[in-house]
């Protein structure tokens, strides 16, 4: 009986040693998804080539806030207030902002409007070298990220709520680009 218990304990010990030895070079948790040499990131105000002035708050400001919140929520990185204090800089520019009527009523009222945003994103380290992460090809060191949202007035959706939905989804896509390949 005692020999059987010792044999079982030896098997468990060997199994634990094999598992820990095999996983020695791996990182655990969501930290494995992101660059290990980056701890802090600076996100300057995102510029917008859009001429839309409604709502009064610029879309670039709203996207900057959403990206910073998403970085803090999903990544191990800390967003800092200046480029000098950061290990890397994430810059973005909204290059296209379109609204397209998909469905209209017989009286020419919009029933379904699609809003699209296109953004160019660059993530570089302190020295200016582009951090190429993710499986997305990076031509000319920038990534084109797009997102759309649907405005349906009958469901109580407003332009602002539809824009905010698109901005949040766009921020999630931008932060998703920061993930390293498996």
Task: Explain the overall architecture.
The structure is a single chain. Mean pLDDT is 77; it is low at 133-142. By secondary structure, this protein is of the alpha/beta class. Helix 2 (59-74) crosses helix 3 (159-176). It has helices at residues 2-22, 59-74, 159-176, and strands at 40-42, 47-48, 78-80, 88-104, 110-125, 143-151. Strand 4 and strand 5 (110-125) form a beta hairpin. It is 30% helix and 27% strand. It has three helices and six strands; from the N terminus they run H-E-E-H-E-E-E-E-H. It has a single domain, classed as Double Stranded RNA Binding Domain (2-Layer Sandwich). Strands 1, 2, 3, 4, 5 and 6 form a six-stranded mixed beta sheet that branches.
Keywords summarizing the entry:
182 residues; alpha/beta; Double Stranded RNA Binding Domain
